[in-house]
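Lab notebook, bench 4. Still working through the backlog of constructs that have no structural model yet. Next entry is a single chain of 470 residues. Request: give me the structure tokens for it.
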Amino acid sequence: MPELFRAAAEASPHHILKLYKANGSVVKISPMLEPNSQDSYYRLEVVASDFQSVTMPTDVDNMEHRLCHLETKVLEEAGKTPEIIRDLKSQVESFKRKLESVKHLSWMGLFKDDSTQQLPKFPPKAKGPQSNMEEEHQQVRTKFLNMSSLQVTEDVIEHLKTPIFDNWQWEAPEMLVLLQVMFTDLDFLTVFHVEVDVLQNFLFEVYRHYNNIPFHNFQHCFCVTQMMYGLIWLTDLRRKLGMMDLLIMLTAALCHDLDHPGYNNVYQINAQTDLALRYNDISPLENHHCAVAFGILAKEESNILKHLTTEQYKHMRAGIIKCILATDMARHNEILNKFKTIQPVFDFRNKDHKEVLMKIMVKVSDISNEARPMAVAEPWLDCLLQEFFNQSDTEKLKGLPVTPFMDRDKVSKPSSQTSFIRFVLMPLFTELTKLFPCLEQHILEPVRRALEYYSDLERATQEGEAASKP
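Model written out:
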């Protein structure tokens, strides 16, 4: 779709396009666009040749310059940036981001009591030194705790239970609120005697232990957990599995990529990293994610499992570890084949059957982006490719074997997706849909449409390349 718009605008791949409605508002470029007409038409513009060439209004740049000058003077006198300066800088940065991007956060759906209180808009986590990152984390924590007393509307909660939920509409503190809603809505706090402040500490610690990398970040963690939450409701698993099994799956989804460094297991093993050495080349990342998760749960103030009996805790720990380890794609065929074997005779009373299903549910949630609307899924593909290319660039620099599907010189966006959807997503989603036919319309059909979209795009790319050859 973006390629078609670039062609219409006679723009190169490096140009930045924006699509406007007749009233001047910005529209997301996606396959879901409504047709235009003479009375209601779209306007397509090339706004810049690359991201660096997007200029900010003079007033904003001047304001930022004055803030930096003021901060320098204050640091010389006080030795530490006052909170008011940090807040001003955050507001300027937030304003700059909003000028560069599509307006969002316009349908929060949050309110306190019966008032129509407007919630503030928060900037994303900023990159910078460790001390600055800690300051950002604490700001997110403060905003999350302040917002946690707000109520989320029933409309938002119902939307949260569906695969069409748009994660790009929400900032970190708001996602933490929605995660709290998921745990509360599934009745985990009542059944397992979890104090609200302990849950909040746990969720914040999870957020804090995700890194600021292109794909395997806190927003990905939120998406996977949200999909798991939706699948639990869509498949009516509350009637089929025990509460502890549901808590295992949701917690595993939440913690499944904790402290991900942005380089996969193949890199860890080839580079002989500390993680590969520590875990003897056996699922080093997934083992690390588990260790970080139980490090968080080892703290009294963030241990949502502290009121479980010893036997319950052992069951819970074993279940979370099994589900997180199942997300290692090296084990994909092994787990899928086992599920295929038992699926025709699946019995919810069979412990082994349930264990395999729980792994499958976490796996499906983990790689479910293509089950979402294209406008939500496609940006995630861009993030993933960025992380892949970062790894292959590092592999080339270090003289390590280059992972083929991550090589920016060999991989195209459509070709990477058609293979992944055809050979990984479709077989996995098809098997789960056999057990839960209701999922066909919710996750299988969207994946089929995504395969058709990227197949058409791949064909068009190949035809264009063939036509350009002498």
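Notes after review: Residues 86 and 100 are 21 Å apart (CA to CA). The first helix runs from residue 2 to 8. Flag for follow-up if needed.
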